Amino acid sequence: MTTAAVPAAPAPRVVRASSGRVFRNLLRSEAVLAWRSGAAVFWSAFLPVAGLVVIGSISGTRTPQDGLGGRSVLDTYLPILMMFSLTISVVTLMPPTLAVYREKGILRRLSTTPVPPSRLLGAQATIYAGLGVLVSVVLLVVGVTAYDVRLPDQLAGFVLALVLVGAATTGLGLVVAALAPSTRVASALSTLLFFPLMFFAGLWIPRASMSPGLRTVSDWTPLGAGVRAIQATVDGHWPPVSSLLVMAGWAVASGVVAARTFRWE
């Protein structure tokens, strides 16, 4: 008498989410957290737009001035406010957020899951850099529609300059996040870096009013090169190749440093 063979039970199917879907979900959750914090929205979005409205509402700010290279105060400060939004987003706000994740062990725990910590870094960089770029576009739209700011004749050059300066500032933010051992140090380093970056962007002394030597130094900084490139597109020219190379160089160099020094725990 023989016993009928019982077929083996099929192995349970393991449903794995695609990497793209995992990243989108992570991006969505991190964006919600950033929105709820309020700091990103106020400092990166509201403050630059409010600054543009205030400048545009003052009498005489739309009149070209010889001391500003033939540009008006409004035309001069529009790209500077774009740099302000990007710098606040990725240099001042992003590093402390990543430092908090490191201190709480979130990055270390992610390394044991199917979601690598690098995805979280990518989500953070996308959110904060994307916010800065989006606000820059909003600033341009408000300037063009409300205050008769000239639309860049070289739109492709404008987009290229904005992408490169966004990549350069994001790289600097990741370097701060990589080197800072704690949230407090990350906040301090971000603040210290913000002031020289914005100085050479022309926030306190417009680039046209700088001495030749100071302007040359500004040309070699990521934000100085960014302002120079964007102003060139508004003037109807393609961004200077030297400015594009400076921004690309900062993006690559800071990205390499951040990749080699970043600690997950």
3D architecture notes:
This protein has helices at residues 19-37, 39-57, 73-103, 106-110, 117-147, 155-179, 183-201, 212-219, 222-234, 241-261. The chain has 265 residues and is mainly α. It has one domain (21-261). The longest helix has 31 residues, at 73-103.
What's this, in brief?
This protein has 265 residues and is mainly alpha-helical. The protein has helices spanning 19-37, 39-57, 73-103, 106-110, 117-147, 155-179, 183-201, 212-219, 222-234, 241-261.
> What is the terminal-to-terminal distance?
64 Å
Radius of gyration: 23 Å
Q: What is the helix fraction of residues, given as a range?
A: over 70%
Instruction: Count all strands and give the number.
Output: 0
* Main pleated-sheet profile: none
- Beta-strand proportion: under 5%
H and E string: HHHHHHHHHH
Helical/strand content category: mainly alpha
Number of helices: 10
Report the uncertain regions: 1-16
Q: What is the overall shape?
A: globular
Estimate the mean pLDDT confidence.
88
Number of domains: 1
Protein name: Transport permease protein
Domain ABC transmembrane type-2: 39-265
Main location: membrane
GO biological process, one term: response to antibiotic
